[in-house]
Amino acid sequence: MKLILFTGIFLIIMNISAQQFPEIKARSLSGKEYTFPAQASGKITLIVVAFKRQSQPVINQWVEMWENNYGHDDNYDFYEIPMLASGWKIMRGFIDGGMQSGVPESRHDKTATYYGPLDQYFKDLEINDSSIPYFFLLTRDGNIAWRSSGILTPGKKTQLLEKAAQLKSKP
Predict the structure, then answer these.
(1) 56-70 and 154-168 helices, crossing angle to 10°
(2) For residues 62-75, average pLDDT
(3) 102-112 tens-digit pLDDT
(4) What is the pTM (predicted TM-score) of this model?
(5) CATH code at 63?
């Protein structure tokens, strides 16, 4: 019985650690069409997923920390994916235009907006509160190696940087 329980727990842990980031098709603020996680293939990538404009100050803290640590290392990358429900697609030009004016031009290629159904992403990414941003560290092959949400704390920063360093040492 103990062996079965241990084996079951081990398989659950292995499944969680090997979860593939779901496919998301989005357009960057510079007009490029991306499909994630393929866009991030070959790099250790921090993906930021957000649903509310009010999340931006929190996102900026995470992205600035990431850029300060990895902005000049070609092994790493990041993307921010604002996710909006299908009904907002008719306003895409207005919404994306507003984002373009609020996001530094250097981040236009790194900010890609998704318009479409959200429910499956909530399920796949275990999102239970759309008022906060979510952060996913992807392996070079698009698996989720680490996840977090909400404000950046010293503990979350340490965990993220340690995991990112571990991933770099793996081929």
Answers:
(1) 40
(2) 96
(3) 787 888 999 99
(4) 0.85
(5) 3.40.30.10
